[in-house]
Amino acid sequence: MTSQETTTSRQSTTSGSPWRARWRRMRPYLLALGPGLLAASAGNDAGGIATYASAGASYGYGLLWAMVIVTLFVGVVQEMSARLGAVTGKGFSDLARENFPLRVTALILVTLFVANLGIIMSEFVGIAAAAELFGVSRYIAVPLAAVVIWLLITRGSYGNVEKIFLALSLVFFAYIAAAFLANPDWGEVALAAVTPRPQLDVGYLQLLIALIGTTISPYMQLYVQSSVVEKGVNPDDYRYTRFDVIVGTVFAGIVASFIIIATAATLFPRGIAVESAADAALALEPVAGPYARVLFGLGLLGASLLAAGVLPLATTYVMSEALGFERGVSRTWSEAPVFLGLFTGLVVLGAALALIPGLPVIDVLVGVYVLNGLLLPIELFAILSLINNRELMGEHVNNAWFNMLAYAIAIIVSLLSLTLIVTTVVGWFT
């Protein structure tokens, strides 16, 4: 080998070393991606997509600033839930049963079960709507989706299930592409994202509350905590899980913002209202082209499939923990019959309800969101009580600044949830 070749070889080796070192440092963080990313992505379900699309179509970019704040809220709450799971090695229901009065625990679990069942049904409604956008009957798509989800959970290991769910989350990039196809004014978008534009308007207030209610859903926190426990995360490895939570939160916030951007750029100037995610997909085609409609439909299908798997799984974890039964995706039927049986029942019931002809879907969903509004403040203050319990968390309790932010979030969400409940009940009588 010549001296020049030797020098080139040494330079190549030297230049390659930093990259390998960086990869070794980043690899544990990338491998940790899972519970946080899935929980946050599942929050962008059919109801969430419809809410974001309605926000963009009704108020243009006027609610983008709220999405920035709500994304911060989600990150704080998700991080506390993941930390609870990593430090205690227990799910939320186990901790609630051991640390709260029986009646409080029962209230949380019963309300959660009823609310989640309604949302599970809404996810299969989303699958039906997405399938019909592509000319497939809901009576084919919904049963087929239910069987696929059931087989995935009951026949797979946790690692495989997580990988498939993560692959489904890639579909959310379709919304980013749809927003670019809509050709928005990016200067105006950037300004709206950092400039609060509150309006003294009932519709605006309801959409603001809905943005929080659909983005910070109780099942997301319960799922991420149970998943962290099943994955075997411990305090020494928790920094990798925190990275997962941050990435998931930012990704979900970006997706939600791009849905608002896409519909604000195309539908708001023309005064086109949307009442569902499917409406948004159909409305995009004349103004943004067929590809935007297809991308929006694919996003709806992927989001609904992801949430239709995560939601019953989160509910099953919670109920199995509360009743003290074996649980886990990696368990067999003989090891965890109640866990797998309850999951099966939720999937079958959710799919069956979604196929009822003439079902008053809007009325059902309103009732479901009222229940979630009732549950969310209870769950947030329960998480805060647990995360600040030194007997449980030791040195991993919230610090003073984080606690101030977390309590501020809980109070704001509680007030807005109360407002949502009051306006909904008044609406029933008027």
Features:
mainly alpha, 0% strand
What features would you describe in this structure?
This protein is 81% helix and 0% strand. With 430 residues, it is an all-alpha fold. The chain has one domain: Amino acid/polyamine transporter I (Up-down Bundle), CATH 1.20.1740. Helix 4 (64-88) packs across helix 10 (186-194), helix 5 (92-99) runs parallel beside helix 15 (290-323) and helix 6 packs across helix 7 (138-155). The termini are far apart. 50% of the residues are buried.
> Which regions are unreliable across 5 or more consecutive residues at pLDDT < 50?
2-15
The coarse overall form would be: globular
* First-to-last CA distance: 89 Å
Helical content, roughly? over 70%
How many domain modules?
1
Strand content: under 5%
* Number of beta strands: 0
| Major sheet summary line | none
Name of the CATH architecture = Up-down Bundle
Class per helix and strand makeup: mainly alpha
For the record, the CATH class is Mainly Alpha
According to CATH, what is the topology?
A: Amino acid/polyamine transporter I
Order of helices and strands: HHHHHHHHHHHHHHHHHHH
Mean of all residue-level pLDDT scores: 82
Query: C-alpha Rg, in Å?
Result: 22 Å
The number of helical segments is 19
What's the CATH H-level homologous superfamily? Amino acid/polyamine transporter I
